[in-house]
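Summary for the lay section of the report: proteins are chains of building blocks that fold into shapes. Here we show the chain for prolyl oligopeptidase and then a coded description of the shape we predicted for it.
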Amino acid sequence: MNNLTRALKFPTARRDPESGYTLHGRRYDDPYAWMERLDAPETQAWIATQEAVTHSVLRAIPEREGLRAAVTRSASYARLSPPIPAGPHGRAFLWQADARDDKLKFMLQRGPEAPLETVLDPNTWASGEALVFAVPSPDGTRVAFGKAVGGTHAAVIHVVDVETGQLLPDRPRGTGHSSLAWRPDASGFFYAACPEPGEVPTGDEAHWNAIYEHRLGSGAPARRIFGDDHVKEYWCSVKLSECRRFAVLFKWDYVHANSVYLLRLADDALVPVAPAMRSLNQVQVIGDSLLVQTDLDAPRGRLCIAPLTAPTEWRTLIPEGADTLQTVTGAGGRLYAVYSHAASHRVRIHAEDGTCLRDLELPALGSVNRNEGEGIVSGISGAWSSDEVWVHFTSYVQPPSVYRYDYATDRLSPYHVPDAGLDASEYVTDQVWYESPDGTRVSMFIIHRRGLPRDGRQVVRLSGYGGFNISVEPRFSALNAAWLKLGGVLAFANVRGGGEYGRAWHEAACKTRRQNAFNDYIAAARWLVSAGYTVPSKLASRGNSNGGLLVAVAALQAPEAFGAVYCRVPILDMLRFPSFGYLSSAIVEYGSPDDPDEGAYLAGYSPYHNVRADRRYPVMAFVSALNDQAAPPHDPLKMAARLQAEGTQGGPYFLLPLRNSGHGGGTTQTALIEQDVDELSFYCWALGSPLPARHDP
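The coded shape description reads as follows.
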């Protein structure tokens, strides 16, 4: 243990022995429930004193300035999106940021050779304000955008006039605005939102999400056009078809299933496409047909086609294969299918009738698609009626990049490939397979410098997620790049619960099968040691959100396997999670504490309820984003307090509060860099020795 441990003095948290509840005949104590009142003076005082102890350690790391230099260089690269056509004469909009910008800007280009003009520059806003989305009207005269404070959730829609820069007085109803699509004539737009305060019972404010229509300049309240009148946990999204005849409406049961309808804009008729909540579906209108990419009767996905005259009568166009079909984009008269092949992406091009034409060769092993609130979003974009095709690409060693693809020459040409100061040729991305205790083979990516000795002395950071159909795929981050430049090794385990290998892989760790994800992850840690990469004392475990739950459970169940744990914005009290915001929707993933069987299973692994005084737990840091609206910000507080009081054989256990940060972190590049520096500082301190000193330019 680090010698500095002896000097640490954590403030004692008041323990309320009377606090608790009975569930299915069993009593569960909750001695730190008072911390759920984040604004209470007692809670605020305890957070502040914990924060002081944590900062006294992290800011005293001798290597800290070197860590900051490495992260800053890795984060300082220019960003540029493909153009978003809107309006006449080649007018287009795009996202852009210079290497020194704290936030992405939304820009206008009046023609292919015209200079960029700024439409929205959140760098001029208060530091805690974020530009979450921006959607230009079809005629290019206005932009509807979402502004959030202290994070990227709970955005509020505003509308700006492109020519004058003036904000319109329109204030669409509801809260938590998202997923916006304009009417073709730019008279108004559709958007997803939760009801106004007071319109639903107390506690339901984050539920009853629906699609509304707002008409510009109208004093009338927005019209609710789509939603669910019976299941409050469903949420919605909307997009406009390329032909502009339809709004495509989605209703989601978290990421497990959705239903899809078309709103025919000529007469506002609702047309069912996938009305039953049985599968995950994405829909695109192509001429007089519908493309439906679905996992209905195909756990690894298939592409169907249906006539607009009979939109529920699907016919398979691209059948299910060995790889997982994630998305299909119709562009340039062809179909671009993105597959997950062993947790990285492959792109296959098909003719309109489904015939396979060729594979599109990507720059390296990496990712094209990305996960967002509206499920998996394709990294292939373009119009069916245009030959221009854009390909997004990233890897563990290449920042998010954009390429143009020319089908005639089969050539992928760089459009924007930024420089993050990392020479990709110096690193190797290996994929290995190992066995979980039940014999299931699980894949894992390992990234390191070429020529790395397998001497069991490397500092390794293992990460995983294991839930919500979200795949762990090769993606770049400034934190990962800095870790590699400093000599560390990265490992990413594709544990069950993710979407890498289709619906069956996801469902293999849902509800009362969740232990499979934990077993897979612990097995990954042990494999890294047995394969000669590291020893447990040099192995850091890092998880974010559901991944935070994963690493916390793994540390409690197999404390000897890890040297340090960084548990960021997690869910840790698995008997109380449905009471926070819209997390009651997550019972479809975790199961319900109110169900006798599922409740007992949740209690069996819930980190907050499974701290044991006779175990020596590793050094752990619990990170709470105090403005978090996706995970309970009080869970890390309660967990740190309980471990400090009861897990005295191990630790220490730090609390790192993120002020003015939401679930995804700070709203500025500067804030994100500081968070990454804190994380790297924690690893340096907790693993007993600094990372190997490398100071690349």
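Put simply, here is one thing we learned. The domain at 20-73+422-687 is CATH 3.40.50.1820 (Rossmann fold).
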